[in-house]
Amino acid sequence: METSPSFGQLIKCIHHRLIAEASRHFSDIDLTPTQAHILIVIHQAQDETARMKELEHDFHCAQSTMAGLIQRLEKKKLLTSFTLDDDRRIKCVRLTDEGRALCDRSRASIECAEKAMLSSLSEAEKKQAYALLQKMYESIVPSPN
């Protein structure tokens, strides 16, 4: 007898399919889904600028991991990094014009993937699914760092 996946397994399967679809969309612009997400987060920030510490926190990753991601985006000329004049310890990143253009393409790809994922749901079902997922997300207490 075949058993149904648990909630956690199903959420993980959905996540894997979304990542696979995003990877397919982003491969033609030489970005990973994580790199595209970083560009989008920076694009949404004030002055299209973000502090590295904030990105590490937002992406739940170590400084060395974020530094590597940022370095690869800088090599592609999608970001520039700099330190603050009043505190040289604080490293920031800012989108370049090329980064902004790819960000717009990335968002379009994400919207396309989400639209495909939700295509079998009615508007009421989409609202209900979103509300339930949000409620589940809010009920998870983050573990202390």
From the helix content, strand content and strand pairing, which structural class follows? mainly alpha
Distance between the termini: 41 Å
CATH class: Mainly Alpha
CATH superfamily: Winged helix-like DNA-binding domain superfamily/Winged helix DNA-binding domain
Number-wise, the strands total 3
Order of helices and strands: HHEHHEEHH
The helical percent reads: 55-70%
For this structure, the CATH topology is: Arc Repressor Mutant, subunit A
Number of domains: 1
Our Rg estimate from Cα atoms comes to 18 Å
Biggest beta sheet summary: 3 strands, antiparallel
Task: Characterize the overall form.
Answer: globular
Number of helices: 6
Protein described:
The chain has 145 residues and is mainly alpha-helical. The protein has one domain (16-139): Winged helix-like DNA-binding domain superfamily/Winged helix DNA-binding domain (Arc Repressor Mutant, subunit A). It has helices at residues 7-27, 33-44, 52-58, 63-75, 97-118, 123-139, and strands at residues 49-51, 79-83, 91-95. A 3-stranded antiparallel β-sheet has the order 1-3-2. A hairpin with a 7-residue loop joins strand 2 and strand 3 (91-95). Helix 3 (52-58) crosses helix 4. The protein is globular.
